[in-house]
Amino acid sequence: MVKVGEARIFPVDVEEAIYTIPELTGEYQIVLRKPNIQDELEVSAECSPGIAQSESLQKRLEEELIKSTGVRSKAKLLAYGEFSRGPQWKAQRLVKAY
Predict the structure, then answer these.
(1) What does residue 55 show for φ and ψ, rounded to 5 degrees?
(2) What is the rounded distance in angstroms from the CA atom of residue 87 to the CA atom of residue 71?
(3) 69, pLDDT greater than 90
(4) Could you tell me which of 29, 61, 75, 96 has the fewest CB atoms within 10 Å of its CB?
(5) How many domains does the chain have?
(6) Chain-wide mean pLDDT for the chain?
(7) What is the pLDDT, as a whole number, of residue 79?
(8) Within 10 Å of residue 34's Cβ, how many Cβ atoms?
(9) How far is the C-alpha of 23 from the C-alpha of 21, rounded, in Å?
(10) Cβ-contact 9, 2 below 8 angstroms
């Protein structure tokens, strides 16, 4: 769980937004910029093979994140294969960047 302001966000809330966009692989990470409460939800998501990162796709993801979580959200798109994956070929969901 991640606290963004007064809201509690669970990975399933983020997945709801990610899975509505077919141009994404479904792999994502929630980036934590500071301990405890975040100012906004920050999510990195992986584009499907052959899909270019674009501002319109990024905005679409940010809109879907706001719909599914109800909080201000910032999205970053990564090219296919940019995520470091663990032994089960799955990206780590929460990443501390502080």
Answers:
(1) -65, -35
(2) 32
(3) yes
(4) 96
(5) 1
(6) 93
(7) 96
(8) 10
(9) 6
(10) yes
Mean pLDDT over residues 54-67, rounded?
Answer: 98
Is the predicted pLDDT of residue 88 greater than 90, yes or no?
no
- Number of other residues whose CB lies within 10 A of the CB of residue 6: 7
With the CA atoms of 18, 21, 27 and 31 taken in that order, what torsion angle do they form, in degrees rounded to the nearest 10? -50
At residue 85, the pLDDT reads 64
Residue 47 CA to residue 7 CA, distance in Å, equals 27
* Burial class of 27 by CB neighbour count within 10 A (0 to 12, 13 to 18, 19+): buried
Domain extent, residue 10, equals 2-84
Torsion of CA 36, 6, 11, 26, to 10 degrees: -110
In a domain, 97, yes or no: no
CATH number at residue 74: 3.30.300.30
